[in-house]
Amino acid sequence: MLAQAVFGFQRSFVRLLIQTFAYLWASPYTITGVAIGLILGGRFRRVEGVIEIAGPRIAGVLDRMLVPALALTFGHVVFARSQEALDSTRLHERVHVRQYERWGPAFVPVYLLLSVLLYLRGRDGYRENPFEREAYDVEDSCR
Ligand SMILES: [Zn+2]
User: Fold this and answer.
1) CB count, 10 Å around CB of 97?
2) What is the 73 CA–ligand 1 centroid distance (Å)?
3) In whole numbers, what is the pLDDT of the chain averaged over residues?
4) What is the 39 CA–ligand 1 centroid distance (Å)?
5) Angle formed by the axes of helices 2-40 and 107-120, to 10°?
6) Cα of 134 to ligand 1 centre, how many Å?
7) How confident is the model at residue 120 (pLDDT cuts 50, 70, 90)?
8) Which of these, 35, 75, 88, 131, is most buried using a 10 Å CB contact count?
9) Which residues surround ligand 1, an ion (CB under 5 A)?
10) Looking at the predicted structure, is the pLDDT value of residue 3 above 90?
11) What is the per-residue DSSP string for the chain?
12) How far apart, in whole angstroms, are the C-alpha atoms of residue 75 and residue 80?
């Protein structure tokens, strides 16, 4: 009984340490995302440990991107054009949050490098990017 309680505590503590490290590892992007959200004046909400920001000025920026998007993830921040877009893309964007937690500061450079390499080979740098394929696979498997 005592051993179970001790092991349970240790497991919870290790999980907390890993989650804390994941937040710190992704924090350069999360801090940048919060700053962008403040500048663009979006509506902030915290959902399952992730900051979600939506608003018309964010929609304007997402429309002007190279690949126009409904939503975009920056560390533990998800931008979307509207609350409806946040709701409909949550599963996909949460996969990107987990990717930021794994890759930390390397995520964006590696993502962009893979996209460029795919484009140079005449492939779809967005849909065939392994990070996007993982997000779409998870999204598809839950439908
Ligand atoms: Zn994606």
Assistant:
1) 22
2) 8
3) 94
4) 23
5) 70
6) 9
7) very high
8) 75
9) 132, 135
10) no
11) -HHHHHHHHHHHHHHHHHHHHHHHHHHHHHHHHHHHHHHHTPEEEEETTEEEEE-HHHHHHHHTSSS--SEEEETTEEEESSHHHHHHHHHHHHHHHHHHHHHGGGHHHHHHHHHHHHHHTTS-TTTTSHHHHHHHHHHHHT-
12) 14
Calculate how far, in angstroms, residue 5's C-alpha sits from the geometric centre of ligand 1. 40
| Distance from residue 77's CA to the centre of ligand 1 (Å) | 13
The tens digit of pLDDT for each residue in 16-57 reads 999 999 999 999 999 999 999 999 999 999 999 999 999 999
> How many angstroms does the Cα of residue 2 sit away from the middle of ligand 1?
45
Name residue, tokens 């993830």: 73
Q: What is the Å distance from ligand 1's center to 117 Cα?
A: 17
- What proportion of the chain, given as a percentage, has pLDDT over 70? 100
Ligand 1 centroid from CA 128, angstroms: 11
28 exposed, middle or buried (CB, 10 Å; 0-12, 13-18, 19+)? middle
